[in-house]
Structure formats: structure tokens, C-alpha cells
Fold this protein.
Amino acid sequence: EAQLVESGGGSVQAGGSLRLSCTVSGYTDSSYAMAWFRRAPGKEREGVANVYNDGRTGYSNSVKGRFSISKDNAKNTLYLQMNSLKLEDTAIYYCAAGRYVADGLGTSEYTIWGQGTQVTVSS
């Protein structure tokens, strides 16, 4: 059974950095697209960054230039480097995987989800 486990969340001051990791187990098929989503309190889950199986990446406008997604196929791990964090980045962050993904930041495109990791940005 495929599983995704996020780690690296925590509390950080505004302007700081965090790196999230998502470890993949149960499958090693690099043809899966992967992404990071987040859900802020009182808001819908939104796509943050994605990487297609051909290596192309995409970002939401709210994080473009500050966040960077990368994937290490040898380690079966997805990363999200988050820099210049803002108060509004506070959310639970989830990683997701999907085999047939057209809209990289579309929630419904992904079939495998992690449990999430909390990121809290304070002033």
C-alpha cells in the first residue's frame, strides 16, 4: 500500500525558512506526479507547488519566488523549501501523489495523500 509521510513542519518567525520532506513508501514508480498542498484555518485546501513526472514544476502565485519543490527519486523523497515565510503561510501542509495529473495544483488530480504537517509562522 502506498504511503506518504510528511515531516519538517514546526514554528518559525516571519521571514524565516523551513524545509518539508515527504517520504514515499509502497511504490517506487517515478512516473507519479507529486505536489504540496496546504489548508489554512477556515480555508479550503489549496495547491502550493507541484512537480510532474517529467520534472516540470509549478507554483501558486502566493508562493512563487519563495518556495521551491524538488524530488529525489533515489531517496523516494519530495521536498518543499520554504523561504521568506509569511504569517499567511500558516497551515497544515500535505504532500500528494497521482499517476494521471493534468492540472498540477488541482486537488482532485491526486489519489494518494499524506497526513499533513503543521507549519506555524509568527510575528
Observations:
- The CA atoms of residues 34 and 97 lie 4 Å apart.
